[in-house]
Every structure is written in C-alpha cells, then in structure tokens.
Amino acid sequence: MEHHKLFRIPDGGRNRIMDPFVKENRKIAITGPGRGSGVSLTAGLLAAWIRHHAPSEAVALAELGTAYFYEAYGVEKRFIHRDFHSFYQLMAQKRNIKNVSNTEEGINWVLHCPQDSFEQQIEWVPCVSDMLRLIHNISGTLCLFDCSGVPSTVLWEVLPEMDAVICVLDPLPSSLIPATADIERMRLAVPDTVWMVNKMNRGVHKGELKRFLGNVEWVEMPCLPLEDLYRAQYNCVLPYSVLPVRQKTEESLKALWTQLGSLT
Prior knowledge:
CATH architecture: 3-Layer(aba) Sandwich
Distance between the termini: 9 Å
Low-confidence stretches: 1-23
Largest sheet: 8 strands, mixed
Number of domains: 1
Shape: globular
Number of strands: 8
C-alpha cells in the first residue's frame, strides 16, 4: 500500500471548518465479512476515540455502503439549525464536493441521507467511480470509510486506494464459518490487515478461534451491553459519549490505533 504524507491541521474546536484544500490524507477502510459483525459501530467508536485522543487529526467518517449513522446518531437533530450536505446527492447532480463538510463533534460526517432518493426521485446507487471520487475528495487528515454492505466485487476495487484496512469479525461460529473464503482472501491479498474480533465474551473459545484464524494477531473488542447502545440512540449521543461504553472500549480502541499507526 502507498503511504501518504500527513498534513496536520491544528484543532480549533469541535465544530471547526476543515480546510478543503488538504490534499494528502490517510485513508482507512473498515469492513467485515457477513452482516452484523459491528463494522459501523467500530467505525463510529474509532472516529470518536481519535477525535478525543489525537486532537491534531481532522477526522472524517464516510459511509460507502449501508446507511446507518444518520438515523442511529440522530444527525437530523444535530443539524436542525444548519444545513446537512448530502455528498451522494451532490455527486448524483455532478456537483463539486471538495468544499463541502458536515462537521459535528470534530468529525466530518459523509453519510447517506433518507431524503437522497426522494429528492432525486430515483434510487441512485453509487458506482465504483463515484466511490473513488468520494474517497479522494473529502476533507480530513484521517478518513475512515465504513464499508458495510459494499458488494465484494466493489470492495476489492476500492481497497487498493486505502492506506490501512480493519476487518471486523463476529466470533460466533455460525458467522465465521460462512465467511471462511472472504477471511482467507483478506489474509492473502491484504497481509497488513488489522483484525478486530468484536463482541468478545466468556463464551468464546479462544483456542478454537486462534485455530480458525491461524497466525494472525487480533484486537479484542468486548461485547457491549445492549442497554448502553440503546441509551445512546435514545439520548441522541455518540455511543463513545456513554461512560460505560467509553470505559469498556478504551483499551481496545487504543490498541487498534497503535496498530494503525504502524501502517499509516
């Protein structure tokens, strides 16, 4: 993977405007085989953690696949007194996206919006070229790309554009076994993949998990209580803002960041 030089922007506040002329940044894909492994949750937690612990970074979080954050994070309420720009709608209209940002809590949110297809009167589906345009034109020194729901054929077109890849796994055997081929392909094609096993709990047989994954090291993310995740959505706050979530994920996110630092 090509390593990009980093141009750091001093952080002036949680809702600062990001410099649209920052050309060089680091791009990190967050993906996972199958559904329900926790890719979006991981992406959101990591973005918030970086925002708090690496304030010199201008963080962007973009959805390349399944829509999640707009509803889950109460984005409509957060932007009730200001415009929220739909990058996908702008691209569908062939408009410039370089000078656009949706900065909230120090993160540039590049998300699918419910009104996108309604205003366009069609169900517009971004193609590979649209995704590449998005990947190379959003503002930020550190850009996280949530690849939930991106078809495998498309995913392997965009992964070469990334400086690092995080693969999130659900350790449940019925989730791992059907994903065997995808996991093996990731191991061979992207040997520097940062592996994260989500939903770790005392029921997971670590010996069997190690036998299945082979000689790869992974970061463990504990299984978070559902009530904490529900509380975050009902209170319209980021999950990382909920104290029990922050306490339970701190070590895992720090370990994830450390591994990423060696790659980017």
